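Repro:
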Amino acid sequence: MFYDLNIPWTTNHAELQHTLSFVAELGYNVVALNHTIDGKLPALINDPIPKPLPFSVPSSLSVLHRCTIHISDPSQNARLNALGSHCDILAVRPTDEKSLAQACQTLECDIISLDLTTRFFFYFKSKTLSQAIQRGVKFEICYAPGVLASDGQARKNLISNATQLIRATRGKGLVISSEGHRALSMRAPWDVINLACLWGLGQERGVEAVSREARSVTVQARMKRTGYRGVIDVVYGGEKPAPAAESVAETGKDQGAKRKRKAIALDDGAEESKEKPLSKREKKRRANKARQETAQKESVQDIKETKESCGKEVLKEHTLQGPNLDQKQESVS
């Protein structure tokens, strides 16, 4: 299964429907519609993406809801847990080195998404990024803003930053998404893998970036929001049904109904005990058994006839040879 966990949400439903249909034709199985929050969280948190969607989606495509918040001030992160309960995937986009370090070390998020089309005035440190990978947080590379950029500087920054990020993470914990606003900016999964190979990511790691690593994001995010202390789901809580108060009259009616059902069951059993018509399979089995018994009887009869004929021939030879033997004995005497 292939994943694209960053398709921006738009109120233009016709264009978004066309984009999702095109993504399904490219071979993706799971996508995430993303809405972005820039700055402080609003007082009333609600998901702008309606459930269900106001348009039809291909049956082979699963649609998740994602929220991405831009962080630059540590004071903005106090209500991230409340925001995470309103979406399936929670992503943060740090804008400087301090916010990136905080996201890697302490923030409860699922994805750290970096705008790789901009120039960063710091280097990605392996020690800092490895802390996020150990906590199960993934780093996201979005290719559409750089691939379809009108200026060459954004494309240059994307290649440079992606190469540096792959070097710092050693190719681990990476998720590749599109962040494409139109169907024109989407690429097929294997085209994305080839593009990652140009950035220095191996083919196996590239396949994992659009399949296994992205799936781990969705699974871990679901476990965080639905699990509690290692319990993922409660199938049966052991509740007992409340006893229903029944009157004496209703009890008598129930007993009479039970007797009727018992009598009907006995009648059905008597009818079933009667001889039923044989099925085709049973007829065939009996015919084969009769054929085998007949063949066995014929073989026994043939053996008996052979023995009798052999005995008659022996007696005939003995009778023929009897006078000759007497004459021979007289001549010898």
